[in-house]
Specification:
Layout lengths: L6 H23 L10 E7 L10 E4 L2 E12 L2 E8 L10 E6 L6 E6 L11 E4 L2 E3 L4 H27 L1 H27 L1 H26 L3 H8 L1 H22 L3 H8 L1 H18 L6 E11 L4 E13 L2 E9 L4 E13 L2 E13 L4 E10 L2 E8 L2 E10 L4 E8 L8 E8 L5 E8 L9 E11 H9 L5
Parallel strand pairs: 1-7, 2-6, 5-8
Antiparallel strand pairs: 1-4, 2-3, 3-4, 5-6, 9-10, 9-20, 10-11, 11-14, 12-13, 14-15, 15-16, 16-17, 17-18, 18-19, 19-20
Length: 470
C-alpha cells in the first residue's frame, strides 16, 4: 500500500467538494428553497375565477409582487390565496381585482393600494374585503348576445305592426292630419294679413322715431345732444364736478355736520346702534323689507318721458304693497256723463253724452297689493289713479320679467293694456321696453323704451354708513 491517496479516493473527494459547492450556490441564488415559500399570505373571495391559473402573477402598479398560491371552492365562491413578497406592504383597505393582459391574454391579480395601515409581513392569511368586479370577455359576449336577441324581437314586432292593415290606415290618417294642420295654418296666416301689415308698419315707425332721436342728438338738440356736442355744457359739467370734489374734500377733512358724521367714530357708532334698534323692532314677527324703484320710459308717439317712482313694502317673501306716483305725458283723463231728454216726433228720448277732460300736469298714483306664486306675481289696486290688475312672470333667477297690466276700464272703450319686458343686467339697474295701450280703440298704442334703478333697505343702509367717500 502506497502512502498517497488512490485514484478512486481522489475522485470521490472531488465529487464531494463539487456537490458541497453546488449546494451552497443553489442556496445563495434561491434555486433550492427548503420548506415554505418566502412571503406572507393574503386571500380574497370572488364569484368567478375562470381563466386564472396556479402561480399566476400578482401585480401592483404593473410590478409583480407575488403569485397565486391556491385556488379553492369555499361556500360556492372561489377563494384565492396569494403569496406576497416580504418587502411589499399592502394596506388593509386595498382593492383587489382579476384582469387579463389584453383581450385574449393570461389572467392575473391586480392590487390597488389603499390608505389605511399596512398589513404586517408576519400576518397569516389576512382577508382583503375590497374586491372589484371586472367585466370579462365571456360576460361581454353574453350581454351582447342578449342585446342582439332583444333587437331581433323589436324588429320582428315592428315588422308585424307595420305590415298590418290597421297600422297602414293609421299612418295614412296621420299624414292626412298633418296636411289639414298645414292648410289651417295657411288660412290663419292669410286671414291675418292686415295685422301682420300693421305690425310691420309699427316697427317701421319705431325705427323711424329712433333714427329721428339719433339725428337730434347728433345735431345737438335736447339735453343729451347739448351734453355731447356743446362745449359750454361740458364746461358746466366740469365745474359741477369740481364743486362736488370740493364738497367731498371738506367732508373728508371732517368739516360740517356731514363731515363729523362720516369721520367721527362715536357718531357712526350711535347711528349704527340706532339702525340696529330699528332692525330689531322690525324683525319682531316677519321682517318688512323696503325697496325704492325709479323707471323712465321714452314714449315714441308722445315724444316725451314717462316717469314712475314706487316704494315697495314687503312684509314677507311672497307678499308686498306698492305705493308710487306716475308722471304720464298723456295726462289724467276724467270722463263726465250727462243725460238729456229730447222730444222727436212727439216721443221723448234720453240721450247720454260724455265729456272728457284731460289734465296734462296732474300726477297719477299707484297703490297696489301683490302676491307671488312661484315665478308668477299677481297685483291689484290703483294703476296710475285707475283700478286695474297686473301679472308679472319672472325668468332667469328674476333677471328677466314680463309684465301685463290692465287698467282704465270704460264702458265704450277697450281697457288700457300695457305689455313690458324688464331685463336686470346688474344688481341695481335694468332695461325696459314694451307696448302701451296695445288694444286702444282710439289708435293711441305706443312703443316705449327706457331704464330703471332699484334700491333696497340694505343698500340704503350701506350707503348711509359704510360707503367710502372719494
Amino acid at each position: 500500500m502506497s502512502n498517497g491517496f488512490s485514484t478512486e479516493a481522489k475522485l470521490g473527494l472531488f465529487v464531494i467538494i463539487a456537490l458541497a459547492v453546488l449546494a451552497w450556490m443553489s442556496i445563495q441564488m434561491g434555486v433550492l428553497r427548503m420548506g415554505e415559500a418566502e412571503g406572507y399570505k393574503v386571500y380574497f373571495m370572488t364569484d368567478n375565477a375562470s381563466g386564472l391559473k396556479h402561480k399566476a402573477p400578482v401585480l401592483m402598479a404593473g410590478i409583480r409582487i407575488g403569485s397565486v398560491e391556491a385556488i379553492d371552492l369555499v361556500d360556492r365562491q372561489a377563494r384565492l390565496t396569494l403569496i406576497i413578497n416580504h418587502d411589499v406592504q399592502i394596506p388593509a383597505d386595498s382593492t383587489v381585482s382579476l384582469n387579463t393582459q389584453g383581450i385574449l391574454g393570461d389572467a392575473y391579480v391586480k392590487i390597488v393600494p389603499g390608505t389605511e395601515q399596512a398589513l404586517a409581513p408576519e400576518a397569516r392569511e389576512t382577508r382583503l374585503t375590497n374586491v372589484q368586479a371586472q367585466h370579462r370577455l365571456e360576460d361581454l359576449a353574453g350581454s351582447l348576445g342578449e342585446i342582439l336577441d332583444d333587437l331581433k324581437i323589436i324588429t320582428s314586432s315592428l315588422k308585424i305592426s307595420l305590415a298590418s292593415t290597421e297600422s297602414q290606415d293609421n299612418i295614412q290618417a296621420s299624414l292626412v292630419n298633418i296636411k289639414e294642420i298645414t292648410d289651417a295654418l295657411r288660412l290663419v296666416i292669410a286671414g291675418n294679413e292686415d295685422r301682420m301689415v300693421k305690425i310691420v308698419t309699427n316697427l317701421e315707425r319705431f325705427t323711424a322715431s329712433l333714427n329721428q332721436i339719433t339725428a337730434r342728438i347728433e345735431s345737438g338738440q335736447g339735453s343729451l345732444g347739448g351734453l355731447i356736442n356743446e362745449r359750454e355744457t361740458l364746461d358746466d359739467l366740469n365745474a359741477t364736478l369740481a364743486s362736488l370734489k370740493s364738497v367731498t374734500q371738506k367732508i373728508d377733512e371732517g368739516q360740517g355736520s356731514l363731515g363729523k358724521l362720516v369721520n367721527d367714530d362715536e357718531t357712526v357708532t350711535r347711528l349704527d346702534d340706532a339702525l340696529l334698534g330699528i332692525n330689531d323692532y322690525i324683525s319682531q314677527g316677519e321682517r318688512w323689507r323696503l325697496g325704492v324703484d325709479y323707471r323712465g320710459e321714452w314714449n315714441f308717439r308722445e315724444e316725451a318721458m314717462r316717469n314712475t317712482l314706487n316704494v315697495r313694502l314687503q312684509p314677507s317673501a311672497d307678499k308686498f304693497f306698492l305705493l308710487g306716483v306716475v308722471d304720464d305725458p298723456r295726462g289724467q283723463r276724467e270722463d263726465t256723463y250727462t243725460r238729456e231728454v229730447t222730444t222727436v216726433n212727439g216721443q221723448s228720448q234720453v240721450v247720454e253724452r260724455r265729456v272728457s277732460k284731460i289734465e296734462d300736469d296732474q300726477l297719477g298714483f299707484n297703490a297696489q297689493f301683490g302676491k307671488r306664486f312661484y315665478d308668477l306675481t299677481v297685483r291689484g289696486g290703483l294703476f296710475n289713479s285707475s283700478g286695474g290688475l297686473g301679472l308679472d312672470y319672472n325668468l332667469l333667477d328674476d333677471r328677466l320679467t314680463f309684465t301685463l297690466e290692465a287698467s282704465e276700464f270704460r264702458r265704450d272703450e277697450n281697457p288700457r293694456l300695457r305689455l313690458a319686458a324688464d331685463y336686470k343686467f346688474w344688481k341695481y339697474f335694468y332695461l325696459t321696453a314694451g307696448w302701451d295701450d296695445l288694444v286702444s280703440s282710439t289708435d293711441q298704442d305706443n312703443f316705449f323704451l327706457g331704464a330703471g334703478i332699484t334700491f333696497y333697505d340694505d343698500d340704503l343702509k350701506y350707503l348711509l354708513t359704510n360707503a367710502p367717500i372719494p
